[in-house]
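Tutorial, part two.
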Amino acid sequence: MNEPSQHKLSLLEKSGYAMGDAAANLVWRGALPYLAIFYTDTLGISAAAAALLLLLVRLSDGMTDIVMGMVADRTQSRHGRFRPWILWSAPVLGLFMVLAFTAPDLSPEMKLVWAYFTYIGLTLAYTVNNVPYSALMGVMTPSHNERSVLSGYRFAGAFLGGILVMGFTPMMVEYFGQGDSAQGYQRTMYVFAALLVTLCIITFVTTRERVESAANQASLGQELKDLAFNLPLIIVPLMAISAFFYSLTQGPDARYTLDPTITGLVCLLVLAGTGYFVRRLIRMPESATTPSQRDLIDLLTNKPWLMVLGLGFLTMLFNGIKYGVVAYYFTHYVGDAALAGIYFMVLLAVSIVAALTAGYLGRLLGKKTLFIISLAVSGALTCLIVFLPPEQYLWVFVIGGAAEFFAAFMPVLTFSMLGDTADYSEWKHGRRATGLFYSAGTFIQKTGGGFAGALVLVVLAGYGYVGTDPDTIKAATAGMVHLMSWIPALFAFLAILLLVVYPLNAERMNQIEYELRLRRREAGVSDS
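Running the prediction step on this input gives:
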């Protein structure tokens, strides 16, 4: 069951693939830590309104992730299924990156409308770019070990993009704005948008799709019609959970208030109803289902995929909360906004080293064991930050950097394990919807990031934070400390419990990979 040499990827191809996530993270890691503070402190939106915006747009965007996964799976071109989308979407993504950080001179109501328009456009363009990009990893090589290494390169590229946008944004905003933060943000994004397009072109040129799957016979129109019928099974429960979450954490300046008891009861009813309809769908005979329904059934009955989905969500909360509060923490608690950019650069430099070693450590220890170690150590170190006073910020750099080394393993392992669950589905059902499986990865990022960003803002709103009122800012610094420490660590510890029962260990995956290789050879399907 040794891996053939043709399954190994060249350094050029792995590095070229990594540039695609460097491009995506000019958006992702630019939006996650800076868009919230841009909304509250530059555009002038209230923290509660910004929290609701981030949460609603991220959750609704989950629908487009799934649609894009299906569209990419059914794309036919001489360049493959996934690579063309990376190229086509890059200019649009760069455009909305600029627009999202533009502060027009409008009324407060129209500023909120502008924020919704540009943020929706940004997340849609990101979906069209990043869902096919993520799925590309699943067809570049059939080797689960090689995918682990490739995932490490991918996230090394992601963290490199993060260093550029998170580390240099404060300095560039100051340089281009000369005291005008709105002008500074916009001109900074011009630079990053041009770089984004260049990096996407590099990924398109240097990568290749190798693993083929049987063509889907249903038309895309029929598939989307079926999806529109079945998608509420995913979206409605998320909306109910979101309403309950918001009702528990809404701040005193919330524009709309929800009763926690009512939203809790509605959430329970929605979850019970969803469970009933899912069981009915799963019990339907295969002859009575459409291809998209079979894809959905494959997902819902794939326990490893559901577990990876949960792991990705919890780890995104862990990492997203920490990153989302950094700008607030250093600006208002430590008292030096410039330290936020330096801190981001330290974290991401550490993350690049961790990402490049994650695949090799995963081979040595196994993905499951490495994941548990990373969660336990990073969570414990993060908790220590609660004890540090503002003048000891250097210890924040030391402890935060050490915690980030282990935290950087988490997205690498998550996306590598998504490929494993796609292999498991092909092994179990004889079907492989790579784009749909990997759309879960961006879905995790967006929903987890949405909840993380919203949680940061609603906790601050709960302390009465108003970005333009110094008195409320001082009163909210305790919340910033909690968000930097024990609040995100809770989600890391919860993720450990889920990993304990995860079934796809290294031995199981080697066996699945071997059997799939034999089946593909017998069917005359290429995987090299």
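Confidence is low (pLDDT under 50) at residues 1-6. In part three we will examine how such features are distributed along the chain.
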